[in-house]
């Protein structure tokens, strides 16, 4: 059974297919007639609040000819102590796939291990692979120019600012190695990448392409992309005051953008908090492509679902 729990779960040929399908789905959206999911029912369990992920998956499943089934975590027996193993087995009898947004990444792995349907990671505290694929596709819209998609990404530099141990930073550590991109992570020393992401990278068979910097200007040097993320993630609210103080040198502002390449792009997976991780000036600048990223979540996730549906037929 093929699942999508981390960026490196797909082979190079499958990555190319996802980007190709993303391009196709975006171009032909609204023309109708898609039956990629063939009347399938896909469950959506969200243990965390969501705007972009929830709506884009729900719309995407519908546009592929499937039926999204919203599963409220408080209304199923998991909330009363039923095991993940039993829940996964039962849901596999009803559904054709599961999209899960959760806290512990191990919950995703347990659903994938005990169920018999594909599981998609719609975000965990450890990884957010759908976002990285969407981000990469957003860049390819500007860079591919007829090239093989992975060739267009190879050698490009993305500089990530803030919590370099966050799920988005971890996702770019894996995505950078998969796409052949240089990833410069910039943040306080206590928020450096941890051994967990190193272990996943090693087990995936990819060489690391990232560096960690405590000097934000050093990280931004000659970057093709400047990327940031919220300083206080969900469930980190008790650390807010400490995080806001220690992260302030890593705010993306005009000085950071000036250190990157003249044509550098600014990315943020949203929601953003202007005045904290990024200035309003940068958010509103011509370099900012944050709403293209948000739109492309729909097209890229449709491509991931279509690829999984096709792969799991065999």
Please state the overall shape, judged from the principal axes of the Cα atoms.
globular
Please mark out the parts with pLDDT under 50 across 5 or more consecutive residues, or reply none: none
Cα-based radius of gyration, to the nearest Å: 19 Å
CATH superfamily of the largest domain: Aspartate/ornithine carbamoyltransferase
The counted number of beta strands is 9
What fraction strand? Answer: 5-15%
Number of helices: 13
Helix share of residues?
A: 40-55%
- Give me the secondary-structure category: alpha/beta
Q: Span between N and C termini?
A: 9 Å
Number of domains: 2
Q: Your description of this structure?
A:
- With 314 residues, this protein is an alpha/beta fold.
- It has two domains: 7-127 and 294-311, Aspartate/ornithine carbamoyltransferase (Rossmann fold, 3-Layer(aba) Sandwich); 131-289, Rossmann fold.
- Helices cover 44% and strands 13% of the residues.
- The protein is built from 13 helices and nine strands.
- The chain has a five-stranded parallel β-sheet.
- Helix 4 (105-114) links the parallel strand 3 and strand 4.
- Helix 2 (52-63) packs across helix 13 (290-311).
- The longest helix is centred in the last third of the chain and has 22 residues, at 290-311.
- The mean pLDDT is 95.
């Amino acid at each position: 059974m093929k699942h999508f729990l981390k960026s490196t779960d797909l082979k190079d040929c499958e990555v190319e297919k996802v980007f190709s399908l993303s391009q196709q789905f975006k171009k032909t959206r609204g023309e109708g007639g898609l039956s990629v999911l063939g009347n399938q029912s896909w469950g959506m369990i969200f243990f965390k609040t969501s705007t972009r992920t929830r709506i884009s998956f729900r719309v995407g499943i519908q546009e592929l000819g499937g039926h999204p089934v919203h599963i409220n975590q408080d209304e199923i027996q998991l909330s009363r102590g039923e095991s993940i193993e039993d829940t996964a087995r039962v849901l596999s009898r009803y559904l054709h796939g599961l999209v899960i947004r959760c806290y512990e990444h191990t919950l995703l792995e347990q659903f994938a291990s005990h169920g018999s349907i594909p599981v998609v990671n719609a975000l965990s505290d450890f990884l957010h692979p759908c976002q990285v694929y969407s981000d990469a596709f957003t860049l390819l819209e500007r860079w591919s120019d007829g090239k093989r998609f992975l060739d267009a990404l190879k050698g490009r530099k993305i500089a990530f600012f803030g919590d370099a141990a966050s799920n988005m930073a971890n996702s770019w550590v894996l995505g950078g190695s998969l796409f052949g991109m240089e990833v410069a992570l910039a943040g306080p020393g206590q928020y450096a990448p941890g051994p967990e992401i190193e272990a996943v990278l090693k087990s995936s068979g990819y060489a690391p392409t990232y560096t960690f910097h405590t000097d934000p200007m050093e990280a931004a040097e000659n970057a093709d992309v400047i990327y940031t993320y919220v300083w206080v993630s969900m469930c980190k609210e008790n650390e807010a005051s400490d995080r806001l103080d220690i992260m302030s040198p890593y705010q993306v502002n005009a000085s950071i953008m000036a250190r990157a390449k003249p044509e550098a792009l600014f990315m943020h997976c949203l929601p953003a908090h202007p005045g904290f991780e990024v200035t309003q000036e940068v958010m509103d600048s011509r370099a900012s492509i944050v709403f293209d990223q948000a739109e492309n979540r729909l097209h890229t996730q449709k491509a991931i679902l279509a690829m999984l549906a096709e792969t799991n037929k065999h």
